[in-house]
Amino acid sequence: MAKKASKKAAASKKTTAKRKPAKAASKKAAARKTAPAKVKPKAKPAAKARKQAAKAPVPNLAKIAKPAPARKKVKYATAESMGKAQRSISISEFFAKNRHLLGFDNPRKALLTTIKEAVDNALDACEEAGILPEVAIEIDQLDETHFKVAIQDNGPGIVKKQIPSIFGQLLYGSKFHRLRMSRGQQGIGISAAGMYGLLTTGRPVRIISRTSARAKAHCYEVQIDTKKNRPDIVHDEQIEWDASHGTRVEIELEAKYQRGKQSVDDYLMQTAIANPHVAFTYRAPDGRHETYPAAVRQLPAIPKSIRPHPHGIELGVLIKMLQDARGKSVRQFLTGDFSRVSPRVANEIIEISGIRKNARAVSLDGSDAKAIYKAIQETKILAPATNCVVPIGEDQLIKGLKTVMDAGFYTAATRRPAVYRGNPFIIEVALAYGKPEKKDPDAPSAKVKVAKLEPDQPQSLAKVMRFANRVPLQYQPGACAITKAVTKMNWRGYGLTQPRGALPSGDLTIIVHMASVWVPFTSESKEAVASYPEILKEIRLALQECGRRLGTHIRKAVRIKQELKKRSYIEKYIPAIGEALRDILDLKERQVTKVCTNLKDVLERSRKF
Asked: How far is it, in rounded angstroms, from Cα 294 to Cα 315?
């Protein structure tokens, strides 16, 4: 009985223990209703993203992944397929894609290059025909970038059948194979200008030419076929023309007109300096008219063609000449195909080379040609004749300078002919310095010429004008031998200021002209002269000759300025001396005036310039 009572007591304790948490839970629920609700803090984005990623079901990659597509087989070229793609390239097609090589880099330069090429051809034709050139240049602006250029000359004209090839085919001309001085060399310029006009505007070149007053004028419209390098005649007719003889070329092109340096205006001014026998008339796009009259009425001498000099050829050229010398012995070949090779010199070359005298030139192989080439280099041969090169002349250069600029001092020097790679050339230099001298009526002596030197004021750098065969070179001055020679000169020794590695400072214009049968240009656009040691040396010597004269003029001007300054000091005190003598010696006014006059005369005689 006692065990049963204990079990009942334990069971009652368990039921009471179970009821207590229920009461406590009801109390907590009531407290929650009465207490304010607590705001749960928002989960951070990163944490929230991680939770969502953890809850998301894991995808079955085996079902999603697809097999990679099979790589396509690359088909490489074969020798046969590459052979079928090979074809020849026309010279005109090449320059159509690389027109910057010919000077058509940008619209402004293209306008200048077009006019320059046409003017060069006009001057060459007039001088060869013995006609004093008269050239008219007209530029019309048809649109913002669309221009029409017309160049007309009074030359001998062009025969009808030659007109299409001259203006519609590259590398067609009469000057490439002859060794004599001329402005054009390669037969590219004017036809390249027409090609540029066709590419940029789609318009052909229009040419009017007449050979004499009795013949009718021919009018052509020609465009170049760039794939075949041949002319396509668009229009051909005979017309009436006012000029008795001459040629007129009209080209439409995309261009830009702008005055200033490296412009058409600057080009014509420089051309007038180097060609004082030419008369220019110019009409600009803005309607402005300019005239450059001829400073002299005499044509320059006509240069003569010469044969190549042995020291100016290379081995490959010699081999080709030997192959073309059919029916000639080696001795006849040397004396007949080269200049300055006499029979004695030919025998000496044959003896050194070990070739038989009567051997036929065509029968010689490469080793024989190499032996002859080495023998030529070891043999003393006279320099080539210089009648193939005609310089401008010192007097003509100064006259040309005076027509376009005023200066206080002019000088010019022409060097003796020299040779580079067997090609004769002549260097000419001219200087124009200072401002025109003005007579001061208040000066003590009207006969004294005073040069105005103002070293304290900032001075600009000297202007360099480069010429090759009378043609101005306006682009790429840094790559030109002329600029390098002028910059390396020590101009301080001649009284000028010069920053290190730069041109001299001051009101100075330097003109350098190179005349040669073959000017070594650095590119087809003919903008800079190559730096051969012989050319640099001749330019330096010519600059030094003119520089010595300039230094004498500057030192004299400085001396005159100093003397005038001293004289002004003395003249300032002459009236005071006269008054002091009057007080000491009791002189009359007439005597004082006479004393002052005598003192001034003594000053004039004692301080001579």
From this structure: 46
Strands 146-153 and 246-254: antiparallel
**Taking the CA of residue 418 as centre, how many other CA atoms within 13 Å lie in the half-sphere pointing to its CB?**
18
Query: How far apart are alpha carbons 253 and 114 in whole angstroms?
Result: 9
Please report which residue ranges of 231-288 form alpha helices under DSSP H. Answer: 264-274
Return the structure tokens found at 597. Answer: 């006059």
423/185 Cα distance (integer angstroms): 14
Rounded-to-integer distance, Cα 388 and Cα 328, Å: 27
Backbone angles phi, psi at 101, to 5 degrees: -70, -20
Q: Which residues of 161-195 are buried (b: 16+ CB within 10 A; e: fewer)?
A: eebbebbbbbebbeeeeebbbbbbbbbbbbbbbbb
> Is residue 550 within 8 Å of residue 495, measured between CB atoms?
yes
Q: Are residues 353 and 316 in the same domain?
A: yes
Question: Residue 574: which H helix or E strand, with range?
Answer: helix 533-585
Q: What is residue 394's three-state secondary structure?
A: helix
Query: In the chain, pLDDT over 90 holds for what percent of residues?
Result: 37
Of the residues 266, 292, 318, the one at which a domain ends: 292
Cβ–Cβ under 8 Å, residues 185 and 102: no
The conformational region for residue 438 under phi > 0 = left, psi -120 to 50 = alpha, else beta, is beta
What is the residue type of 542?
A
**pLDDT at res. 1:** 44
Quick check: is 437 in a domain? yes
pLDDT, tens digit (0-9, with 9 covering 90-100), for 146-164: 999 999 999 999 999 999 9
Amino acid identity for residue 459 in this structure: Q
| Distance from the Cα of residue 391 to its chain's centroid | 22
The reply to whether 420 and 554 lie within a common domain is: yes
Domain limit, last residue, from 345, 378, 411:
378
